[in-house]
Amino acid sequence: MKRFLSILIAILFVIVGFSVLGCTSTKNVATSQLSTEDFQNLNLDPALNRQKVQNGTIMQVWCWSFNTIKENLPDIAKAGFKAIQTSPINACREGDEKGMALMSNTRTGGKWYYHYQPIAWKIGNYQLGTREEFKAMCEEAEKYGISVIVDVLPNHTSSYLPDVLPEFIEAVGGMDKLLHENGRRPIKNWSNRYEGTTGQMGGLPDVNTENPLFQDYFMDYMNDTILCGADGFRFDTAKHIGLPDDPCDDNSKENDFWPIFTGKKAINGKMLSRADELFLYGEVLQGGNAREKEYTEFVSVTASNYGGNLRRAIQQKNLGLGIIEDWNHPANPDKLVTWIESHDTYANQGESAKMTHFQLRAGWAIITARQYGTPLFFSRPQGAEATQFPGVSQIGDKGNDEFMHPEVVAVNKFRDAMVGEGEKFSNGTTRQTLIIERGNKGVVIVNLKDGTEQIKHKVGLADGEYNDHANGIKFKVQDGILTGKIKASKIAVIY
Prior knowledge:
Oligomer: single chain
Radius of gyration: 23 Å
Number of strands: 18
Strand content: 15-25%
Largest sheet: 8 strands, parallel, barrel
CATH class of the domain at 45-302: Alpha Beta
Shape: globular
CATH topology of the domain at 45-302: TIM Barrel
Number of helices: 15
CATH superfamily of the domain at 45-302: Glycosidases
CATH architecture of the domain at 45-302: Alpha-Beta Barrel
């Protein structure tokens, strides 16, 4: 049966004109050369994977190599994460000496954002590993029931155009067709949708994502990534890729990127593989006429304002209910990806890098205990807390161990147990303590106080004694009243 499925799927790829576009050494590998094991763990129930990720939690294994991810999958699974999100796996600039520092002041020293500046869309780079290593990682993740989400960057190339590979330039019809007509002009008016979707952002040349030759090329990359085992994608700088009704580049016929790369439309007979199963979301940072609600017709989107508000609330020790409850987003909350910290907020000076481990866990507990939103956990590099780029981890290394902290694990598993339950928020004796109830099944308590908080709160939990799953704190429910003590800077997970 497995062999039949692999042959059938291989034939289907051939029929739609799919061609494998891997790293240099495997660029022209035929589908028929893949073993029967390539498809043995395919989820044949459409949308099941998507729902699993949406209802669960995602761990962003930032700058971890494919081999490092593979080695740590048992711990990631034990921690209760349902998916991992890799850094971009595309070809990228290398620097003069292939530096592997996360951040350096020199070209040779290395920079984490090199793989966020593609020079071609094919799997494998010197920072993260080869196509074969990516595929092996995906196969191992499948064994643990962990979905793999890949960060993709169709919007731009490397800031240094001479680094872009000639084979890619040729494939898209030459340099004249590579970029939008406006693609080398910096965005000045961020509220102008034409400028925002066709102009140069942060010194990065803006790719003509509506060029059919680019779309054909990029579809090969996407489908090869899926063929290797990817279960979803994060679209970097998504708000800089126009929606169908946005102003169109003069060199483009129509803004059809999103219909094509969400499986609603073909390009040259090629469709996005397994589109119904994929978890897809876009980095649509709020502000500057982002049209964040309109993007949800195609993908889930990031709740960047909520993350910012929550960080400030935690740092100020003010968990007022208005701040906590308000998603500060026009889209339905079931279409939101939430975070307390992302790689950008960590890398951007002054946003989140100075937050302590407990502050981050407190934020994680809040977004993960909520009914809606898909929480994304950012794996920081190793080193002292509240320090930006502490210099312990290099690119490829495992991040710190916070993803295995008992409080993180407890709220991850709490989320799994509370699917479908409503949410209710209350404060304790002050706004420094937050109580999150999920139906009549569970309660999460976050205490930001410098001292112990005495809990006496009416809940829907059945009467009885409870031992919280995070720190082993004893609680009791009698006559519908939850009582107990939670120490300073602790999280309790009760169900």
